[in-house]
Amino acid sequence: MSTATVRNVVLVHGGFVDGSGWQAVHRLLTRDGYTVKVVQNPTLSLDGDSAATRFILDGLDGPAVLVGHSYGGAVISEAGTHDAVATLVYIAAFAPDKGESVNTLIADPPSGAPVPPILPPRDGFLFLDRDKFHASFAADLSPEDATFLADSQVPWGVGALSGAVTEPAWRHKPSWYLVATEDHMIPPPAQRSMAQRAGATVVEAIGSHAVYASQPGAVADLIRQAATSVTL
After folding, report:
1. Strand ranges (DSSP E) for 70-130?
2. Nearest CA to 208 among 152, 142, 141, 126?
């Protein structure tokens, strides 16, 4: 066995957004010769999103770095047991343990933590308050970019939040974690706690919950580190 560079990267988005937010990260990595796939997970159920991720993994010609942002961390924790996954990268993401869901992880927030402005469910779907989207989700993006994200929100199915992980991939695969220090959706202390529990290699970046879009260089750097540190 020896250390090798993994050339495939699979990116999984979180709730309220779609895969287009990964564009800058995709551009940086493909310029370096990586093959990058973006999963357009429907965010209706954890099972469905995991299946969508496995479908992309099935089509690869070699091992991959599997990357998840926010709720996408729950998805990669569930789907990351796939044989093609060499390592996991969490970007300001949930990292549930066996039997945990996003709902259980947010049930007891740290004292004084900001409360995400999630509106009451409508027909089984969740949205963020449009007027509070910029401050809560994307404070370090321009007002124009944050407004676009707010106005193009993907309805997040309440069933996705209650989907429990069956066997967390981070118990079997090496993991990396980027903590967004100015995150108002997932409190940074909660991010650090989940990363420590997963035994992840941790880096921190000054960024909002949308760090994958506001700090694509830092995100791409971490993915490169993970890709070049795999033992095959």
Report:
1. 85-91, 125-126
2. 141
Distance from first CA to last CA of the chain, Å, rounded?
A: 6
> Is residue 224 exposed (0-12), middle (13-18) or buried (19+ Cβ within 10 Å)?
middle
- One-letter identity of residue 136: S
Query: Which residue, 97, 62, 228, 107, is CA-closest to 172?
Result: 97
Question: Which residues, at least 6 apart from 216, have a Cβ–Cβ distance to it below 8 Å?
Answer: 24, 25, 27, 28
Question: Any idea what the Cα angle at residue 175 is, between residues 68 and 44, rounded to 5°?
Answer: 25
Nearest-angstrom CA–CA distance, 102 and 93: 10
**Is the model's pTM score more than 0.90?**
yes
Beta-strand runs (E) in the chain: 3-4, 8-12, 35-39, 64-69, 85-91, 125-126, 156-157, 175-180, 201-205, 230-231
What burial letters (b/e) apply to 187-197, b meaning 16+ CB within 10 Å?
bbebbbebbee
In this structure, are residues 87 and 66 in contact, taking their beta carbons and an 8 Å threshold?
Answer: yes
Q: How confident is the model at residue 3 (pLDDT cuts 50, 70, 90)?
A: low
What's the rounded Cα separation, in Å, for the pair 10 and 67?
Answer: 6
| Residues 5-51: tens digit of each pLDDT | 899 999 999 999 999 999 999 999 999 999 999 999 999 999 999 99
Output the six-digit token pair for 167.
Answer: 């066997």
Pairing of strands 125-126, 156-157: antiparallel
